[in-house]
Structures are given as C-alpha cells and as structure tokens.
Amino acid sequence: MNRIKMILDCDTGHDDAIALMIASKHPDIDLLGVTVVAGNQTLDKTLPNTLHVVQHLGLDVPVYGGMAKPIVKVQEVAEDVHGKSGLDGPVFEELRIKAQPEHAVNYLIRTLMESDGDITLVPVGPLTNIAMAILLEPRIVNKIRQIVLMGGAVGIGNTTPSAEFNIYVDPEAAHIVFSSGVKITMMPLDLTNTALADESVIERMRNIGNKAGKLFADIMSFTLHSQAVNGLSAGPVHDVTAVTYLVAPDLYETVDAYVQIDLSKGPSYGRTVCDIYGRSGLEKNATIGMKIRLKEFWDLVEDTLRRHI
Ligand code: RIB
Ligand code: CA
Description:
Elements: E1 4-10, H1 14-25, E2 29-36, H2 43-56, E3 63-65, H3 79-82, H4 104-114, E4 119-123, H5 128-136, E5 144-150, H6 165-169, H7 171-178, E6 184-187, H8 189-192, E7 196-197, H9 199-206, H10 211-226, E8 235-236, H11 240-247, E9 252-261, E10 272-275, E11 286-292, H12 294-305
Parallel strand pairs: 1-2, 1-4, 2-3, 4-5, 5-6, 6-11
Antiparallel strand pairs: 7-8, 9-10, 9-11
C-alpha cells in the first residue's frame, strides 16, 4: 500500500505531541513535515515544544515555524490547560535542533505546488497557517488532497459555550478554510472528548517500556487535572483522532454536512454551525466525525508507540 503523504500542522500542546508521535511512526503514514502555529501557547513556546518532541524521540522530520498571531482576532492561549510552557509536565534535555529557516506558510505553498496533489494536511491547532497559505497562493486549493482537522463542535464548545478552542482562536482563518472548497473532514469535540487518556490508559502506555511510552505518560499525566476546566476527569487526546482517521477511517461514524463558521461578534463567535440535518439546503462542505471505536483506537495508539525508541 502507498503510504499516505501528510503534513501535520500543530500548536504543541499535549495532545499535539501525541499526534506527532503517531503520525511520525505509523507504517501507513509518510510524514513529510511539521508546521507549527501559535495556539495553545505563543509560537515562541509551541515551536520549541514541537522540536523537543522531535529531538527526544530522534524523529527525522523537518519542523517549520509559522504564524505567531491570528489573522484578525486578538490572540488568546490555553495556559489553564497546557501550562505556562504549553507542554508542562515532561522534562526535556536542552534543545539542540532547530526549525527550518523557511516560514511554514511558504513551505506549505512550495510543497503543495510541487506535489502531484497527493498530500493530506492535518491541522490540529488554529487554522492560521493553512488560511494564510490559501490567501497567499489560492492555486493550492486544487493541490491539497484533503484536510483532516481537529476542531469545532457540533454541540457545546470548550473555550466559550459556543466555540471550540482551535476555531475560536482564529475564526476568520477557519472561515477561509471551510469556504475554500477543499475536501474537509472535521474531528469535533463531541468525538474527541471521548478519547480520554485516564490513569489506566496512561499506565498502559507507560508499561510499553520505551521512551515514547514514558513520554506519553509524562505528557498526559499533566492533563489528568488541567482538563478539569472543561469538566473532564482526564486528558482527551483530541488531536490524535485526526491522525488515526487517516489510517483507520472504519473506526469512525461520520456524517456529511454544511459547516459554517459564525463570525458574528456575539456569544457564538467562532462556533462551527453544523447543519447535520441539511436544513439549510446548502452544499455540504465537510465530513464530521461523530463517534469512534475506542478499543481499536487505543490499540492503534499503543501499537504505534511501540514502533518508537
Ligand atoms: O479544543 C482542543 C484543541 O485545542 C486541541 O487541538 C488542543 O491541542 C488545543 O489546540
Ligand atoms: Ca492542538
């Protein structure tokens, strides 16, 4: 089977780090590069956080720094969930590796335009980098195979009652992406909040006995308590569900729907308005993940972590 060519766009972040661990070692994925955006923390934190995971696990993947601010909205970070560093919990050695000199947006444009249209983008943070690439070079829309993203909510949000963090941080960027015409699959909170790394999951991965299993445990142990802000008793690995969809779509129940980003500056700013029942009559622009088979999901995560050092 040809491996799936993908670029991970992230705001590392605890669950982003796990998503990187899965994307970098799953046998069916060819991880071409990692682009980093401000989100969970400012870019001067999310970029080194990403590099730390790459260095710690000896990953052979280029990392590119991207947009440091949302396109329009005043920047907000998720310090209450991810801590001051954006990846509180694990202790890393001094950083010895560096990001590539090319800006992430330019990397995305160059790589997509040079491609055969066979690259999947997997954004798991605010969509600022992806939107900027589309604005700068609209022709990439026809060169992106598909976008599989973590973001949005069919039901209630986690950052406001209406909006999920990745969309809320840069709603205008989300609007540009969702109205671009690119094939989109969206993993919303309704699904990702069920992928909970509780004590038993953390113990299971720690017991793998390698660096990756220990890193999983050190990372997710921090979120056992920090996610209480969202009324959760453990850490959801939100972003991982976007990566595993690529290699195991049969684990998911999905529905196709028209999704609109609410840009009104009221209490629903940044909401993904998901027309699940087709009431609008508007053309469906997204496939939405509604449920995931968790036993097989965690088996896939464990099997992939075992492939690491
Ligand atoms: O709302 C969850 C999302 O926001 C995840 O991507 C998490 O990493 C944060 O970026
Ligand atoms: Ca993220």
